[in-house]
Predict the structure.
Amino acid sequence: MEENEALSPFLDALYWTLVERLVEFISTPLAGAAHAVAGVVRPRVSTARVFVFDGNDLSTIAGIDCPLLDRAGEQIDHYRHVAVLRRAMSSLACGAIREQNVDSRGIRIFDADSFYDDDENHPVMLRDAVFGSVAPTLRRPSAEPPSVGAQIIHPVGFLTLDAHTVRVYFRDPDGGETCGYDVATVDAAGNFKAAAGGFLTARIRELVGTGTLAGREVSADSDEYCVRAFAVL
């Protein structure tokens, strides 16, 4: 990272969220592209450099610079990053993206800025909303898992019930009881939300602490994977 750039906890969080998202594409190529991720570094405080290659031959490696903020200074969510990377790699494969420079290891570096401009109105899809509903809970377990009564509960799975709801399952390891906590995947306007489940564990703790969780119980009669369910987000 360049030394003359000011540090930013906000940009740090955006960067590490993107890194965590891209780890899954190390062994599995991004859908719609033949390339896999070979590395992620941060050459500038507001830029993530994603290295991609064909999955077998490192002579094909190239770096793609991805801005963490758009031109208006707003954060770019990692769903949009992944969509842009797919397009950038397709252009890279056919030589339609212009090389910007070469790094100290001789790796070609490309700038993805123009792809973000073209992708300004990239819609969030159901698969993005499902991922956003569960990833913060299942990929980064809370250091303070929520409790119901005196029992600590832990996430054990999830199920997409329909286009509007993802149910995340938590289990009480002592009593063996599993409950479902429903996360809405759409906003008030009916659009899919990219990070619907970002505060799920905190929300459960809040509802338990205020004594309002019971009032949010919904039917779990048709769900064999839990004994009770609650609409929480």
In short: Residues 126-231 form one domain.
